[in-house]
């Protein structure tokens, strides 16, 4: 048994003991980003990028659509469970009473948001800059509920999960001639990373000290991306995957620089690229039947309003599929990804 496996077993034992005592590993979990982690903030926005209707959520608690872009749980939901929470960080905009429900964290993510401010504006989503302001408002509410001292402990001890960048490329750069004719993908990456750096600094200024940031996934392997950009091939689009790899390298460099310049910051990169690439290229080895087509509809393109209860061809068993819709993993795939995230984020707890 390797050191990492032994360390993981010991860590999971700590988790089990903590959970059995009713104590999560951290006081709270705060989530920022895009549709990969949106738990329903877009439900009440004037946007077409929503998932609060069937068949979304058909395998979730009570079989209800919540606004999650999945048939069931998101990777961030499994992460909350792995940390010992008995409920998931609620979608901040969906809360009618923003009081004690915020004590264990909140979800500020908005589908079609990203590091690039204009991506969110294009789809009437919540930009990361506004997500930070919502978090600041949340802090003030926590002070009223728990007091300043307790709030400070919650803020400094909490885990902050960030997932963004995918929408900037797939839903903006690649389809927007105002961007792709002006900037190379490499230049666009630099613009995104400047925004990312500012975002982390703003979170840090508000007290965040334990931040986990997901990398870009293998964008060229998303069913909709293959359909749109694959030139009638059924293979992953190398150009898009290479752009993701390049971005992730820069994300790592930028994150290391931020960690060096911001005292006491733990900023950990959580690799989504390799685990999801493995699921797509070796589905049967990972317990999946289908990785090219998604479960919803034809499985080649549908997402959001195109994935609805009338979508013809929607699969009966989503757990056989790596993808639920054209852009988003199934609950079964999210479980695999969340377990990998836990291993990657171990240093946040040490």
From TrEMBL:
<dbReference type="InterPro" id="IPR001087">
    <property type="entry name" value="GDSL"/>
</dbReference>
<dbReference type="InterPro" id="IPR035669">
    <property type="entry name" value="SGNH_plant_lipase-like"/>
</dbReference>
<feature type="signal peptide">
    <location>
        <begin position="1"/>
        <end position="22"/>
    </location>
</feature>
<dbReference type="InterPro" id="IPR008265">
    <property type="entry name" value="Lipase_GDSL_AS"/>
</dbReference>
<dbReference type="GO" id="GO:0016298">
    <property type="term" value="F:lipase activity"/>
</dbReference>
<dbReference type="InterPro" id="IPR036514">
    <property type="entry name" value="SGNH_hydro_sf"/>
</dbReference>
<keyword id="KW-0732">Signal</keyword>
<comment type="similarity">
    <text>Belongs to the 'GDSL' lipolytic enzyme family.</text>
</comment>
<dbReference type="GO" id="GO:0006629">
    <property type="term" value="P:lipid metabolic process"/>
</dbReference>
<protein>
    <submittedName>
        <fullName>GDSL esterase/lipase</fullName>
    </submittedName>
</protein>
<dbReference type="Pfam" id="PF00657">
    <property type="entry name" value="Lipase_GDSL"/>
</dbReference>
<dbReference type="InterPro" id="IPR050592">
    <property type="entry name" value="GDSL_lipolytic_enzyme"/>
</dbReference>
């Amino acid at each position: 048994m390797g050191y990492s496996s032994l360390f993981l077993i010991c860590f999971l034992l700590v988790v089990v003991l903590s959970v059995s005592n009713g104590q999560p590993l951290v006081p709270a979990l705060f989530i920022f980003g895009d549709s990969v982690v949106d738990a329903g903030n877009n439900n009440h926005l004037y946007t077409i990028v929503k998932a609060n209707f069937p068949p979304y959520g058909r395998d979730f608690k009570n079989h209800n659509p919540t606004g999650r872009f999945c048939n069931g749980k998101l990777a961030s939901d499994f992460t909350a469970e792995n940390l010992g929470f008995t409920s998931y960080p609620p979608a901040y905009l969906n809360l009618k009473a923003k009081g004690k429900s915020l004590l264990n964290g909140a979800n500020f993510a908005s589908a079609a948001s990203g590091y690039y401010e204009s991506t969110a504006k294009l789809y009437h989503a919540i930009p990361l800059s506004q997500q930070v302001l919502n978090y600041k408002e949340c802090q003030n509410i926590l002070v009223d509920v728990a007091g300043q001292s307790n709030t400070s402990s919650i803020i400094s001890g909490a885990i902050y999960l960030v997932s963004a960048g995918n929408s900037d490329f797939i839903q903006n750069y690649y389809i927007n001639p105002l961007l792709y004719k002006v900037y190379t993908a490499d230049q666009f990456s630099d613009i995104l990373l400047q925004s990312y750096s500012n975002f982390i600094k703003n979170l840090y200024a508000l007290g965040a000290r334990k931040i986990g940031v997901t990398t870009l996934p293998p964008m060229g392997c998303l069913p909709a991306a293959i359909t749109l950009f694959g030139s009638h091939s059924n293979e992953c689009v190398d150009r898009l995957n290479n752009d993701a790899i390049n971005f992730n390298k820069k994300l790592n460099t930028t994150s290391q620089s931020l960690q060096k310049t911001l005292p006491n910051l733990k900023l950990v990169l959580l690799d989504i690229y390799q685990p999801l690439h493995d699921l797509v290229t070796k589905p049967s080895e990972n317990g999946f039947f289908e990785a090219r087509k998604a479960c919803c509809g034809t499985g080649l393109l549908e997402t959001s309003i195109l994935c609805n209860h009338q979508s013809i061809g929607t699969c009966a068993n989503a757990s056989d599929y790596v993808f639920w819709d054209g852009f988003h993993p199934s609950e079964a795939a999210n479980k695999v990804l969340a377990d990998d995230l836990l291993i990657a984020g171990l240093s946040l707890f040490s």
